[in-house]
């Protein structure tokens, strides 16, 4: 009986190899790039869209609640100390801010400086325990310089003499810029009743704006100080500071 010979010369196909290490790494980098791009779109664009909608609704609601104001009528400056609004509840919107030197010159003002419940959704935030509009002391207000509506995007545009106006249901409070400076985050004395002099009793009416610095970084804080100039009764119209042509010198010069 003849033995069957085994053909040892038969060619065997190599098993197909899966993607190599470099291929897998490349796919991961592409995926990471897509995710990063989506995050940047969300962070730099979509947060602005959502915040703008929310803040527009807030402003519309305030106008309905407070009643219309004659934006064509210039109200006279009032004598005597200004009225001081009641202490607002936490996260409550109690006013609007008008900064003519800003591209976006009107936005809501709420109580508190929390990110999720105030700064990311409602606009500017009033530091609790600091003075209220019209009160002796330092009305201190924080806002985003980029993302989430970026209400203080143009803060570096402000120059001495530029008006910053707070509107409540009763009055307009006009402050005028005195100086700008850059400090470290821990330099909280800038929002003291007397800015830069913690422990000293206030005798003047001041206002301070704070925002992160430089743009797209929280390494430092950009600070603007202002002093009270005058107030007007909301029922009489708008203050001269908000009339056409009174936006301040910096509005014509542009900004950062």
From TrEMBL:
User: Gene3D superfamilies per the record?
Assistant: Sortase
Q: Which EC number(s) are documented for this chain?
A: 3.4.22.70
Q: Does the keyword tRNA-binding apply?
A: no
Q: Which SUPFAM superfamilies match?
A: Sortase
Molecular function, one GO term = hydrolase activity
Name the top EC class.
hydrolase
**Keywords, comma-separated and alphabetical:** Hydrolase, Membrane, Transmembrane, Transmembrane helix
Q: Known InterPro entries for this protein?
A: Sortase, Sortase_Class_E, Sortase_dom-sf, Sortase_E
Q: Where is the active site?
A: 144, 212
Q: Which spans are transmembrane here?
A: 21-45
Which domain of life does the protein's organism represent?
Bacteria
Listed NCBIfam families: class_E_sortase, sortase_fam
Protein name according to UniProt: Sortase A
**Species:** Brachybacterium aquaticum
């Amino acid at each position: 009986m003849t033995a069957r010979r085994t053909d040892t010369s038969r060619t065997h196909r190599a098993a197909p190899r899966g993607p190599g290490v470099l291929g897998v790494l490349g796919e991961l980098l592409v995926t990471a790039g897509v995710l990063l791009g989506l995050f940047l779109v969300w962070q730099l664009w979509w947060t602005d869209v959502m915040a703008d909608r929310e803040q527009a609704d807030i402003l519309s609601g305030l106008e309905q609640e407070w009643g219309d104001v004659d934006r064509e009528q210039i109200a006279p400056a009032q004598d005597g100390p200004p009225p001081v609004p009641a202490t607002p509840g936490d996260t409550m919107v109690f006013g609007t801010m008008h900064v003519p030197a800003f591209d976006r010159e009107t936005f809501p003002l709420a109580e508190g400086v929390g990110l999720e419940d105030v700064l990311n959704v409602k606009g500017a935030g009033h530091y609790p325990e600091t003075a209220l509009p019209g009160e002796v002391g330092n009305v201190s207000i924080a806002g985003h310089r980029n993302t989430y509506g970026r209400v203080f995007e143009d803060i570096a545009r402000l120059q001495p003499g530029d008006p910053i106006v707070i509107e409540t249901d009763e009055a307009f409070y006009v402050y005028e810029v005195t100086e700008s400076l850059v400090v470290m985050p821990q330099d909280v004395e800038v929002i003291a009743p007397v800015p830069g002099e913690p422990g000293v009793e206030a005798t003047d009416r001041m206002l301070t704006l704070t925002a992160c610095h430089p743009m797209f970084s929280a390494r430092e804080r950009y600070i603007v100080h202002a002093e009270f100039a005058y107030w007007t009764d909301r029922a009489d119209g708008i203050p001269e500071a908000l009339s056409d042509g009174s936006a301040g010198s910096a509005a014509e010069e542009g900004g950062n």
